[in-house]
Amino acid sequence: MQQYVVQHEDLCPRHRRTINGVLYRACAGLPWRDLSERFGPWITVYKRHRRWSADGTWQLLLSAIQAEQDAENLVDWDIPVDSTTVRAHQHAAGAPHRPPPAVPGRQKGTAVRQTGAIRC
User: Fold this and answer.
1) 10-67 pLDDT tens trace
2) Is the dihedral of CA 86, 92, 93, 94 positive or negative?
3) DSSP 30
4) N- to C-terminal Cα separation, the chain
5) Measured between alpha carbons, how far is residue 64 from residues 4, 70, 97 in Å?
6) CA 42 to CA 39: how far, in whole Å?
7) Coil, strand, or helix at residue 27?
C-alpha cells in the first residue's frame, strides 16, 4: 500500500501513521480527540483524512488495492446471503400506512415560524 500513497521515501512514515490512525479510529469507534498520540496529533490525522476523502485519495487507494488483489485471484467477489438472517423491519411488513395526525391549530401547507430564544 505504501507505493500508492506517495513516491517519496521521506513522506511515507507520516502517511503510514495517518493511515494507521484513521483505520484504528474506524475499528475502535472512538472520537477523533481520543486518538492515541502514537498516530500523531489528532487534528493532523483528522484534517488529512478529510482532505483525502474530498480529493478521492481513499477511493484511489481502495481501487488500486482491489485491482492488485483481484489480479492475483485473492478476492472472492461472491457474498453468500442466507435468507434466514436477512429480515425486514416491522414497518416493511406490508401493514397499511396511515399519515401522521395534523398538528392542532395549523393549516395544511403553512410554515411554522419560530421566534424567541432557543430552549435547552
Assistant:
1) 457 778 899 999 999 999 999 999 999 999 999 999 999 999 999 988 999 889 988 9
2) negative
3) -
4) 48
5) 8, 10, 46
6) 7
7) helix
**What are the Cα distances from residue 73, in Å, to 2, 4, 70, 76, 107?**
21, 20, 5, 8, 62
What distance in Å separates the CA atoms of residue 116 and residue 93, rounded to the nearest whole number? 43
Per DSSP, the residues of 80-104 read ---TTT----GGGS-PPP-PPPPPT
3 contacts 33 by C-beta, under 8 angstroms: no
Instruction: Tell me the pTM.
Output: 0.53
